[in-house]
Structures are given as C-alpha cells and as structure tokens.
Amino acid sequence: MTQIPRLAMNDGYSIPQLGFGIWKVPVDNAATAVEQALRLGYPLIDGANLYPNEAGLGEGLRGSGAPREDGLLPTKLPP
Q1: Contact (Cβ atoms closer than 8 angstroms) between residue 14 and residue 6
Q2: Is residue 77 predicted with pLDDT exceeding 90?
Q3: Where are the domains of the chain?
Q4: Residues 27-42 pLDDT 10s
Q5: Can you tell me the distance from the alpha carbon of 49 to that of 46, in angstroms, rounded to the nearest whole number?
Q6: What's the distance, CA 22 to chain centroid?
Q7: Which of 52, 42, 49 shows the shortest CA–CA distance to 19?
Q8: pLDDT at residue 1 above 70?
Q9: What is the average per-residue pLDDT within 7-11?
C-alpha cells in the first residue's frame, strides 16, 4: 500500500495531504465507501454534520476496524 504524504503543522502534528470526501456519496453507499477507503489506506475521511450520509460515516468507521488513533476526521460546522 502506498503511504500518503503528510504535512507537518506548527505544533508537531501532521495531517495527510489526501483524504476521502463523502459529500457526494449516496446515503445507501456511505458505510461501504468509508470502510473501503479506510481499508485502502486513506487516513482522512472528510464529512460534515450537514451531509445526509453522516450516519453512514459512523457505520463505516465502526465496520472498518481501523484504530481510532490512525485516522483523522475533519468536519464543518454551520455558523
């Protein structure tokens, strides 16, 4: 599996340069898409509480078995 390059932040933490966005993933496919993305090595899954498929994001995270500390879940919050 190819390692995705990371960017170093000022605090020493690093974030992946590439992630998997779920904005356009259909609700019925979200859990499977997230599971597969994590198994393929995507370290970042991008979602938002306003996306209708957010429940599938949670299901996919649980179903993947990926360790919590290995991933990054950025989100967006309404103003």
Answers
A1: yes
A2: no
A3: 17-65
A4: 999 999 999 999 999 9
A5: 11
A6: 8
A7: 42
A8: no
A9: 97
**How much is the average pLDDT of 53-68?**
93
- φ, ψ of residue 39 to 5 degrees: the values are -70, -30
Phi, psi of 54 (to 5 degrees): -60, -35
Q: Is 90 exceeded by the pLDDT of residue 56? A: yes
DSSP string covering 22-78: -TTS-GGGHHHHHHHHHHHT--BEE--TTSTTHHHHHHHHHHH---GGG-B------
> In this structure, what DSSP letter does residue 14 have?
E
Q: How many CB atoms lie within 10 A of CB 51?
A: 20
Q: Provide the annotated active-site residues.
A: 51
| pTM for this entry | 0.87
In the DSSP assignment, the letter for residue 79 is -
Note whether 32 and 6 are within 8 A (CB).
no
- Residue 6 is given by DSSP the state E
